[in-house]
């Protein structure tokens, strides 16, 4: 098995407007408790990754929680399917996908997860293990482009 079929990638593409709206909501939240609550809600926007695709070959290394990542390219735009079994990581993944899905290789390669999450007011608020896992996912996204 190589990866999920196009229907799952399309489901992720279809939820992109909701994810982008959620980014604005997290950005506007005035305190960490509200942002934390929103992260858990944002993660619920991601389509479920069926158990058959929760394969070790797609598991992101460097992430303490289980997280899986798949990639495809269509007309020069990159699309990712990513999922985690941990609620906060799932919410962070959703925010990350809002920033990188349907982007060109150049846009993704110049994307800075550190700056992005700092602009959302999340830098310094996450535990070191969550931060490391999040950056491992962002790095793996770039590595999948080649």
Quick recap:
The chain is mainly α and 146 residues long. It has helices spanning 6-14, 16-28, 32-43, 87-100, 105-110, 113-119, 128-145, and strands at residues 67-74, 77-84. The protein is built from seven helices and two strands, in the order αααββαααα.
Description:
The chain is mostly helical. It is 54% helix and 11% strand. The chain contains 7 helices and 2 strands. Strands 1-2 form a two-stranded antiparallel ribbon. The longest helix has 18 residues, at 128-145. The two termini are 21 Å apart. The model has no long low-confidence stretch (mean pLDDT 93).
Which helices and strands occur, and which strands form pairs?
Blueprint: H1 6-14, H2 16-28, H3 32-43, E1 67-74, E2 77-84, H4 87-100, H5 105-110, H6 113-119, H7 128-145
Antiparallel strand pairs: 1-2
